[in-house]
Amino acid sequence: MNSSAEPRPSKCSIGRSWRQLPVMVTAAAMLAASAQAQAAPKRGPSSELFGDDPPKLRGSLQATTVPLPRPRPAEAPQAESAAEPSDKPDEQAAPAAPAAPEPPKQSACRLALTEDIAVAPSIADINGPRGCGGTDLVRLEAIVLPNKHKVQVAPPATLRCSMASVVADWVRTEVTALAAQQNSEPVVLDNFDSYECRGFNRIPGAQLSEHGRANALDVRAIKLANGTSIGLTDRSVPRAVRESVLHAVCARFSTVLGPDSDWYHEDHIHLDLAQRRNNYRICQWDVLDPLPKVAPLLPAERPEEAPPREAEKEGKDE
Fold first, then answer.
1. Is the pTM of the predicted complex or chain greater than 0.85?
2. CA angle 178, 179, 182 (to 5 degrees)
3. 89: part of which helix (H) or strand (E)?
4. Is the pLDDT of residue 55 over 90?
5. Residue 213 sits in which domain range?
């Protein structure tokens, strides 16, 4: 044997190399597949439908001429230039203010009760406890006569428009005629009470009065321009004058209360427009006679010849 010859591999080493060969081939195949995947272009949603090939042109593009609009005639009106927007926030247009609410519509009574008839400004509705208050209210300050003179309501009365309208018409007609009989005209209507949230005659727990509904007025007197004061319950005022007032108010108002109606109306007259079934009306005002100017005579003294009272009593017993 030649000692210089290369040593042959042993059987153990050869077997180990053959066992490692499949592992190396598998790793090389995986690296080649990864490199091929990275080199391939990414597929999008459209490529799944239409394929990976790029679109092909189906013809050459031809240049076309787009017609332009005709020039604007010189006689045409000029277009308004739009306002240039401002970059500054302070110069921007302020937002439009909200529209003011429309005022409530006036009632037919309110439209009829003009300044030529009465000074009666409208006031807000009253919603008080236990049903007190009302709507379409006015503050009756004065009544305007046909000659434009004014009759002051002292103090001003808070009333419903319907009640104020009837009071004004009464003063402008019957009261003015009554004053004319004395060669004068009314100047003040003495208001004793108007709106007040209370029961009848201020009795606790009583039914709500028409005063609590702003539907009543208490009057004490009518003052004339010549200084005369007509007290409606004053027995010194001529009976004919007071009766003329009685007939006038009982024809206009649904309730009239005065002396002898109860103990609460001896010094004033109550007027209201209470609504009752079948338009039932109440007119209770006793126009009292004037008091005598001279006191009645005392009974005469007992005559001396008259029998003694005891003897007279004994005679009756018999």
1. no
2. 105
3. none
4. no
5. 108-284
